[in-house]
Amino acid sequence: SPIPDYLAEALGSVEFDQSGATADYIPELADADPDRLAVSFCTEDGRRYSQGDADVEFSIQSISKPFVYALALADRGFDDVLAKVGVEPTGDAFNELSLEPGTGRPLNPMINAGAITVHTLVGPPDATPEARNARIVDGLSAFAGRRLSVDQRVYESEISCAYRNRALANMLRANEIIDEGPLVAVAGYTRQCSLLVTVEDLAMMAATLANRGVNPVTGAPVVSAAVVRQTLSVMATCGMYDGAGDWMTRVGIPAKSGVSGGLIGALPGQAGIATFSPRLDRHGNSVRGVDLFRRFTSDMGMHLMEVP
Ligand code: GLN
Q1: Which domain CATH number covers 179?
Q2: Residue 110 Cα, ligand 1 centroid: separation in angstroms?
Q3: Would the pTM of this model clear 0.95, i.e. be above it?
Q4: ipTM
Q5: Measured from the CA of 194, which atom of ligand 1 is nearest?
Q6: Which residue out of 24, 58, 62, 68 has the highest number of ligand 1 atoms within 8 Å of its CB and is therefore the one to mutate?
């Protein structure tokens, strides 16, 4: 297959770009090796291709958000989740307090305020925080087709300085959007962000979305097609935060980034794609990851708005 050669060449074309910087507000992430570079493709029939540092583990961070959103939709239904979190892009940074005037709902589930709320909506309404954390590890592991675990060091590192997320959670509690202790919600959300993945795990998670919610390798049905449609739609409009419009016009597929340098894209009915490169642009999106995806779109014509 020419695919491994193509992927190796793509990595080579961005390798020397050292622009951007690792996230500096989480000490463990600031210390990450900034030169790591990897890519993985997983097709909807389960073929997998990877190049670069494909077996290096890193914390999933905000790439957990669409998957936990999917679990919340599956567990509580669309109406209950939409009552608490909207679906409108913000044009603001991911950690901004972007709440809808009047209702106090976070504008969408991809920003931190929305994701902290969504975290509290996983499992049955009376689930304990422990049961909820377990449901999230089980659910994300089903997307990945492999048992995932939490990086305790990353968790401790982020929680020790999560002042901003605590502020967001306090506002959510004051607005009665979450109905539990704000610190419990932030602890669970931070734990979800600390799950360790490789770029191959991320590609398979994205491929599960691309494959109508069925893991293409294990065959496990993880969420329904309706949940996938909602999740991919929100990724398309909000997944790249205040870089979402630029992304949609130039790359053209639903995507999600994370501050540890991961980036996923899902091409419905075809494949899941993931990249890993820790230096970030001013939106908190991976510099070389965005470059690689632009290249994939122009080489493979994967822009969803391109009329064949
Ligand atoms: N855990 C990070 C935070 O809450 C995730 C942010 C991200 O990846 N964009 O700030």
Answers
A1: 3.40.710.10
A2: 10
A3: yes
A4: 0.96
A5: 1
A6: 62
Domain termination residue (choose one: 146, 178, 193): 193
Q: Does the beta carbon of 159 lie inside 6 Å of ligand 1?
A: no
CA of 47 to the centre of ligand 1 (A): 30
- Cα–Cα distances in Å, from 293 out to 14, 49, 271? 11, 15, 13
The token pair at 166 is: 């605590």
Instruction: Say which range, 21-30, 168-177, 216-225, has the weakest mean pLDDT.
Output: 21-30
Distance CA 175, CA 111 (A): 17
Query: Nearest residue CA, atom 6 of ligand 1?
Result: 62
pLDDT in tens, 63-97: 999 999 999 999 999 999 999 999 999 988 999 98
Q: How many angstroms does the Cα of residue 159 sit away from the middle of ligand 1?
A: 11
The answer, yes or no, to whether residue 98 has pLDDT greater than 90, is no
Ligand 1 atom 4 nearest Cα: 112
Enumerate the β-bridge partners of residue 48. 42
- Asked whether residue 33 is domain-assigned, the answer is yes
133 assigned ligand-binding residue: no
pLDDT at 38: 98
| pLDDT tens-digit map of 29-64 | 998 999 999 999 999 999 999 999 999 999 999 999
Sequence-distant (6+) residues with CB within 8 A of 241 are: 90, 92, 93, 94, 110, 111, 257, 283, 284, 285
| Domain-ending residue, one of 166, 193, 220 | 193
The tokens 């909000």 sit on which residue?
A: 238
Judge if the beta carbon of residue 165 lies within 6 A of ligand 1: yes
The contacts of residue 239 (CB under 8 Å, 6+ apart) are: 66, 110, 247, 254, 255, 256, 257
Do 50 and 72 lie in a common domain? Answer: no
Domain residue limits at 57:
3-61+197-300
